[in-house]
Design brief:
The chain has a six-stranded mixed β-sheet with strand order 5-2-1-9-21-20, with no helix packed on it. It has a four-stranded parallel β-sheet with strand order 13-12-11-17. It has a three-stranded antiparallel β-sheet with strand order 6-7-8. Helix 1 runs parallel beside helix 9 and helix 4 runs antiparallel to helix 5. The radius of gyration is 22 Å and the shape is globular. By secondary structure, the chain is of the alpha/beta class.
Length: about 425
């Protein structure tokens, strides 16, 4: 490599892209960071914005601010629409292009509705801040509309919230929403009792938290049911519309439906014309390069790479960060003249999910925790990974206040009525 002029383009300022850029600090390269949004988002806590526990500014940071001291990095707010592999250019939606010597695609994931994209207007998912504020608005507006509704059946439909998907996001949403209804909003309305709200978690598989040990899945189900959540297992959703959701032989009238059932990769594979798995993730080489293009790497939710046991590396933040560091180490080795392939080895640190404000399930492999000790460990782990002292302090104080009083401060309805669900 020509060290003096080597130009690296990074598409995506998520966990993988930022970790890669951080790990290349001091290397003799120029880096251009491209993202269609101006902020880095801490996605694991996105559901807490959607459920009024945290404000948007507590889990997102301007990319330019995070990279302000890196004079070797240029940040561009732009929308990528393709990659010219032959010409080694990243194509932007305004017709311009950015040339690269090495390209890192860390473009994340989007919602997947299993061939039913028509469900999206009625069942929004959680991937962006815009998604979170949309979900927050729908949840709060359901109670506002129920307050004015005189028809008992329509009122109950407004007070029924269905969550599709029993993974960590679905479990965390269900536990938090039922606490919002039963504790935070209690006594604030005159015509309804918010404790009449019904939260239904629908999972097509035979247990929630399928990636966890069976005993932790069972604990999580029982903990949700103690909170008041109805857990429906073994029944796939077959319809979502403005009137509710159909699963198995059941039609559930519900005016608020939230999607936590599946994701698909970004269009990275389409940009590259590369082979992909069923979720659209690029089938990368063991060293995270694109087959036939050793100058292009793909990491995070956009990449399909296998562990030694044959299972794919999960689409979680720790995996993306490990991949970012791995690619940075590879680039440094190449700059030093070492062109050997370096296979990626994923280290699984464990699975975590919270269930309301006093319980959680943690599976670290060598130890499994439940209850309030797991909740405190879950909280400490997430606070540790937040960026900046101010955000760690703000989130800690918000959680302590909710823990002590049940009150949530981020309950503003701020978006226009742009949804049809």
């Amino acid at each position: 490599m020509n060290q003096a002029s080597h130009h690296i383009v990074v598409v995506g300022a998520g966990f993988g892209g930022l970790e890669f850029t951080r790990a290349l600090g001091g290397a003799p390269v120029r880096i251009t960071m491209i993202d269609k949004r101006n902020h880095h988002l801490f996605q694991p806590l996105l559901y807490q914005v959607a459920t009024t526990a945290l404000a948007t500014s507590e889990i997102a940071w301007p990319i330019r601010h995070l990279l302000r001291r890196r004079k070797d990095v240029t940040t561009l707010l732009a929308n990528v629409v393709g990659v010219d592999r032959a010409g080694k250019r990243v194509l932007l939606d305004d017709g311009s292009a950015v040339a690269y010597d090495t390209l890192l695609l860390a473009t994340g994931a989007r919602h997947a509705y299993f061939g039913h994209d028509e469900w999206e207007p009625f069942a929004p998912g959680l991937k962006t801040l815009e998604d979170a504020t949309t979900v927050r608005r729908r949840i709060l507006m359901a109670f506002e509309q129920a307050e004015r509704e005189s028809d008992p059946a329509k009122r109950q439909a407004l007070l029924t919230l269905a969550i599709i998907g029993g993974g960590p996001t679905g479990v965390e949403l269900a536990g938090t929403i039922v606490e919002l209804a039963h504790e935070t909003l209690r006594g604030e309305f005159r015509n309804i009792d918010t404790r009449d709200a019904r939260v239904v978690l629908i999972e097509a598989g035979d247990r929630i938290l399928a990636n966890f040990a069976p005993e932790l899945s069972d604990y999580a189900r029982k903990a949700l049911e103690r909170l008041g959540v109805t857990v429906e297992l073994g029944q796939a959703v077959t319809r979502c519309d403005a009137e509710g959701v159909v699963f198995g032989e059941t039609h559930l009238p519900a005016r608020t439906i939230l999607w936590a059932a599946g994701v698909a990769a970004s269009p990275a594979a389409e940009w590259l014309g590369a082979a992909a798995d069923r979720a659209g993730r690029v089938l990368v080489e063991p060293d995270l390069t694109v087959p036939g293009s050793p100058d292009i790497f793909v990491v995070g939710d956009a990449a399909h790479v296998l562990r030694p046991d044959g299972r794919p590396v999960p689409g979680v933040a720790p995996a993306a960060k490990q991949q970012g560091r791995h690619v940075a180490a590879t680039i440094k080795a190449r700059l030093a003249g070492d062109m050997d392939k370096r296979p990626f080895r994923y280290r699984h640190d464990g699975d975590l999910a919270t269930i309301g404000k006093r319980a959680a399930a943690i599976d670290l492999g060598w130890i499994k925790l439940t209850g309030w000790p797991a909740w405190w460990l879950w909280g400490l782990a997430h606070i540790y990974f937040l960026i900046g002292f101010r955000n760690r302090l703000a989130v800690s104080l918000s959680w302590l206040w909710i823990y002590a009083t049940g009150q949530r401060s981020a309950r503003l309805i701020t978006q226009g009525d742009d949804d049809k669900g």
